[in-house]
Amino acid sequence: MIAEMAPTKEVEEARPQIQELTNFLSEYTAKMLSIGTYTARIERCVRRIADAYDYEASLMIFVRHFIISVMDPADNSIRRTYVKTGAAAQISFDLISELSALSWEIYDEKIPLARARASFAEILASQKKSFAKTLILLSVANAAFCELFGGDGGAMALVFAATAFGICARYLLSKLKINLKIQYIAVSFAVSFIVSLGARYGLSATPDVAVGSSILFLIPGVWLINSVFDILNENMLVGISRGLNTGLLIICIAIGLFLTLSISNLGLVNV
Q: Which residues form the Threonine/serine exporter-like N-terminal domain (predicted)?
């Protein structure tokens, strides 16, 4: 009889209080939402973790906010429901993969919540990247796109410099809490104008490729793909909202680029 009761005691010890679990799931959901995870994947991971501790969880996700509800299936009066905000962060596919794997580890091994929290914190700490490294890699990638589309060496150098400036400008504007759409217009104009100015002084023989490539790092491709995934997974509200928001950002990029082409003498547009 003692042998039969031991596993039950172990399960009870591993089962956290509903408030502790809700707090953890709120933090987990906010992080997954902020780094570019599509809705259906977040829902599966959160429900998987809740199931591991014998709770039920449900989510309603919007573009920036989400509603999370956790309930004890044995007693419906024991529940927690919160409205939370997911702050925007840098998109990281590695982090998405690691956090998804964490949900499976919790589900398969039934690890205690304290250990799950420690693993969560360890994953977040290990994924922190230096701003300088991100700056260099994104600038090199954008310059590589310029070369791929037929840009010459001068165009690549201009795109590299403009991209580095644009990333720094976005970082500064974000710290100042400037509206995201204003950020996109300002940065799009700034980077394309830097490139057009360099091309005007003869630094590149392919100004059209240089100007067109300079704003590619701003394109919100992940959010556009996520909106399609959400719609295909019948999360219509958040999918349409993400699609409209992404469309507005693309329009803002186009406005900034049009301002540059309107005041430059490159002959790329007629106004």
A: 26-263
pTM of the model: 0.80
User: Which pairs count as long-range contacts for 256-259, CB under 8 Å and 24+ apart, including other chains?
Assistant: 256/184, 256/185, 256/186, 256/187, 256/188, 256/189, 256/190, 256/192, 256/215, 257/188, 257/189, 257/192, 257/211, 257/215, 259/185, 259/189, 259/193
CA distances from 238 to 26, 228, 266 (A): 18, 10, 41
Give 217's DSSP letter.
G
- Element spanning 111, H or E: none
Cβ within 8 Å of residue 128, ≥6 positions away: none
Q: Sign of torsion, CA 48 226 65 166?
A: positive
Query: How many C-beta atoms surround the C-beta of residue 197 within 10 A?
Result: 15
Strand partners, 59: 68
